[in-house]
Amino acid sequence: MLHHALIRGLKPHIRSYVLQADVKTMADLLHAARVAEMASSAADTKVSSALEELRESNKQQLTAFQQLSDRIHGKSAKKRASSAKPIPKCKTHSQCVHY
User: Does residue 80 lie in a domain region?
Assistant: First the structure.
């Protein structure tokens, strides 16, 4: 009866491991629970590490994208400014073209 109460109080992933271990004694139950907890801690550490690497990579890519975007927008603004031709002034009224 005590086994069932303890198993119900375990976290789901630890409970699953303990139930699969088919423990018979309290010592076996505690051992299986500790093993499951250590295994999940190691997996959590690996996942956390992988997520941190992805975050850092995303930051670097965002910075590179922003720099590229700034370069593109800067060049296009300069290109538009340099391609604008000044409007010639008419010396006499007959030289002016009206539409």
Answer: no
